[in-house]
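# step 3/5: fold
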Amino acid sequence: MRIAFVSWRDLAHPQAGGSEVVVDRLAAGASERGHTAALICGGPVGPRSYQVHPSGGRYAQYLAAPLVYARHCRGWDVAVDVSNGVPFFAPAWRRGPVLCLFHHIHRDQWRQHFGPVAARAGWFAERAVVPRIYRRSLFLTLSESTSAGLIDIGVAGERIRRLPVGVDVGPAPGRFGGESSEPLFVALGRLVPHKRVDLLLRAWDRVRGQTGGRFVVVGDGPDRQRLERSLPAGAELLGHVTDEEKARLLDRAWLLVHGAMHEGWGMVATEAAAAGTAVVAFDVAGVREAVADGRTGVLVETEDQLVDTWVALARDPVRRHALGSAGHEHASTLRWDRTVDRFLEVCAEVAWPLGTR
């Protein structure tokens, strides 16, 4: 098959996150299995094992993507239209099958990033225009929460397919020395409003007097300068780090603390589990699929519960280690090869509907 991904960003983008990781794994995995894959996205871009065609800046790419597609990928078997709030509406400009990869519903996120008029327009496009434009297309999601959200905005359930998420699982936890002697708590993710790092820092200001230690936030984004202006004692914003450094921090951490108000899939929680680190997070869409509450981590409802749980787990190494061990065991079942296999099954279903194969 020839599979063209149309997405917002490449992994080389400084704000790349879980969405970009998933697309890269799917495109690279398809290429490794003998298929042809290409990514059309805004810059900057980096070298990949598959074709990458830049399509302009943050917003201009929505106009340029059809032209870049026509130049490089016209007539390919499947176009994977990746939605990051608003998809590229590929069914309106491509003649051929379209698969819409939908990470999560952005209902509340519109108000966090845009003014009232733009937020209303974005939410209208997501809830009213998307179901109509893609009414003959299949949707691919990472979680039951997103599937339910799509059904809520009018997408027929029979047009939705689930994709199991993978994670890189190394050897048994401890290759960097295991849990640090000093309390170390870590948060991972882009510094954007819906990740609620400000809430985590506020909670840390209440936690540190009871636990001591450090709280390290890994990631970058538009909120960084604002967060740095009110950084509490014992907290650090590291920005981007290498994969090796991220693995070291997760191996040494006592807990991963995650504040997102929603996710397509809580990939950072899965990464922590792969390192054998327990997770404390909010019981929200996408995260509740990534964290088995009470088994691989603890899900909370409020900021007060977050503080109480954070302190309780810091004081209870037996439970903390049990959660981490169960997380590592569970993460070992989440393999990227299964993710790619399922993706290619859905692509085949899209390219060659039943009765035409």
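# step 4/5: annotate
The two ends are 13 Å apart (CA to CA).
# step 5/5: archive (pending)
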